[in-house]
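New to this. Look over this protein:
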Amino acid sequence: MSSKYNLNGIGMTSQRTRERLLGRLMDQGISSLGVLDVMRSTPRHIFLDEALSHRAYEDVALPIGHNQTISQPYIVARMTEAIVTSGPLETVLEIGTGCGYQTAIIAQLAKKVYTIERIKPLLDRAKANIKSLRLRNTDFKHDDGSLGWEQKAPFDAIIATAAPQEVPNELLQQLNPKGWAVGYSSWWR
């Protein structure tokens, strides 16, 4: 399959390495072809510091600075698959932008993505990463995402990579009646 991005890589960022990751994701139960295709065509290594880019296609979370990590590819795929298979995605709210990797995955499957990050340097990095991929359907907000983005609600899905122990009711009220909210360690609805 051809990619719309320049995925030229050598060694641990090569197409063969990326395909091995996709194989592992399928072995772990990821079955959405749309999610798998987007993950295949999205260069995860550009979201990491150069010193870690050789590990980009390992199925592990990796540090991105500020005591934060880029999520493990399986978690990204599973959470994305959960919202994609729940119905049409006109609008998605993402809480915890980080370096923008999950944002990029979602932006290729939804009409519009609204994403919130509380750490300004990470938000700036995510904006640059999303811009480099020429994705233009994402709005960014620097804020604590626990209360969502009421002005842009309602959302077809809310995906939180920074999931709180308790989900604020204000956040769930921003979902469409048949919408889904997915958290890092829990299914909210």
Observations:
- The beta strands are 62-65, 68-70, 91-95, 112-117, 138-142, 155-160, 175-183.
- The longest strand covers residues 175-183.
